[in-house]
Fold these 2 entries.
Entry 1:
Amino acid sequence: MPSAVLVKLDPTPRQERMLVAHAGAARFAYNCLLAHVKADMDARVKPEWSMYALRKWWNVNKRTLAVNADTGLPWWQEYSKEAYSYAAQCLANGLFNWSQFRHGKRYGRRVGFPAFKCKNKTRMAFAYTTGSFGIVADNPHAVRLPKVGVVHCFENVTKRVHGVHVLRMSVNKQGDGWYASLTLDKQPAGVAHAHGNVGVDLGIKQFATISDGTVIPNPHPYRTAKRKIGRLQRKLGRQQYDSHRYQQTKQHLNAQYARTRHIRLDMQHKLSTYLVRHWQSIGIEDLNVQGMVKNRRLAQAIQDAAFYQFRTLLTYKSLASNTNLVIADRFYPSSKTCSQCGSVKTKLSLTQRTYKCEHCGFELDRDLNAAINLAQLAKSALESLNARGADIRPVSNAPYRQSAMKREPSSKH
Ligand SMILES: [Zn+2]
């Protein structure tokens, strides 16, 4: 199973100009290729839209297309050919997905025909798949980007890649700067973990309640930054569109959004790593995020918590470290079940913060009660796994064992 390592880049001003130019070159090639496909379709000619055909067309026509309009000099050779291949790949994917959807072979959200990429609205991105890109032998804090140079990073990439072969490196600009994402051939080897089982109940006020009694509060990064973001958005609305100061405010705004994202991700990375390092079997619930977001009073709080992202982190980390992740069925009554005697309530309102059992009189914090139930689920899954002895399922099947009825939300929150 491939995995990825994301690092923040620290380019020099010259390198940053080259990054912007590469992303621009990719966008230019994409638009040229799309215009070519559209012209063919208008002329009722069946267009060749595989990645190879598109790349070939670009290589034939780049000498006339990628030319400076004022000087007449060609500029295509100033940038890595990987930028143009990336454009061809993006367009080929877009056309493939559109045609699959049109013929009823693809489910989920509607996929439209690819659109031209506008300079101001497109995310700056390109990727390397061949050539001498990736980690640098004598500098662990840098990555090599052909035609751009050896770019310093904010962390030790060599250590994180852990000697695994790098298949692809995509480069893109996010709100607070440039990032490189290295796709690795396989997961770097995980750490040995302790034994036992644990349950984790996810919530809004407390992000997670662990069955051993630990409570992880929700940092609510968006709620905290909401006033600041609102102020910047109003400021942006008053400014002359696309002026220098408009761009400045927009940068501040993007940095604010990036900050909220980082605070959330930091907490989730720490929690998921802690869980897979300490327990052999982890039980969590399958939250119907899309359904919950429809509750307008809770929508923002739920999106601020990003449960789906947490599950994604936990899934890949448990695969890497051989941990058994049990995702409870969406209809598993983790909150309504008594963790002492096992009786199930028919109704439990959200305002009742303490679980009181009518059968055995047991009383416990609502979230902790749910977490203990999930821990028991994780335990029974582990026991049935061990009971089968040699017949242990491959780890890749483990996270979805309990979730036959699960449907993936089509968007991540
Ligand atoms: Zn009870």
Note: The pocket of zinc ion is lined by residues 338, 340-341, 343, 357, 359-360, 362 (CB under 6 Å).
Entry 2:
Amino acid sequence: MSGELCAFCGDEYIVDLLEFWTEERAWMFDACCEAAHEELCEMLARDLEGAREWVRELFADYGYPIRRVYASESEMALRVDFGLELRDISLVEAKAFIGEHHRHNAPPVSWRWGHAVYNGHELIAVAMVGRPVARMIDASKVVEVNRLCVNHELDSELTWKACSMLYTAAAKEAERRGFEKVITYTLETEAGTSLRYARWKPEHTTRAQSWNRGARKRTDKAPTCRKIRWARHLKPVVVPKVDDRREMEREAKRYGLELPDAEPVMQDDAA
Ligand SMILES: [Zn+2]
């Protein structure tokens, strides 16, 4: 931006970052003259895609690495998306966030651990990992993402990929702690796109488990429609002996899963 002369004022052409309000994600440009400033604003409004790289570099020069600049529909203005950062979170913080933002469930009382995603200064999504809710699932081998919650009041650009980042983090931590599998549930009406991004697979559809029976009216706090159970296996599945394998093949067929090839079965030495 040096040496070039401005077509409007004839002085050196200058376009610079004048102010940047990180909390509001908003900024103001400085220019050599009003006409140059106006031209820049028009250019950004007309061709944000084309200007994106230029704007990103300008912010980077000032020590603000950003993911992108986007047109916020809620604020009718250009805003900065800093990109995502995974951080630790306390149980108290996680519960407070979920209590405020979760669409259909209250926060669980306890957990094993949790993850948080920030965009710039802002906490935008939380995952709580705990014991499997279904009693027949072995809690010593399996953990469950009991809640995953995003602040949906934010522009969707800011939370882009936050869920898959949380699912991936939960699986990684579960594996580090020696668990064999991590699971979670989505409502049948939800797409599960971020789970697929994080390389989880659907493995089971539950029946609707809770409704009002007869005269005894119950107030259901959780939704009662069918749910899909998703899983990510964290270690290579141990190939079972022949008797177990038939059962596993039946299960695999039912849920559309792939079994690893059977290894030659070693006979026990004991006669
Ligand atoms: Zn000028």
Note: Residues 100 and 129 are 18 Å apart (CA to CA).
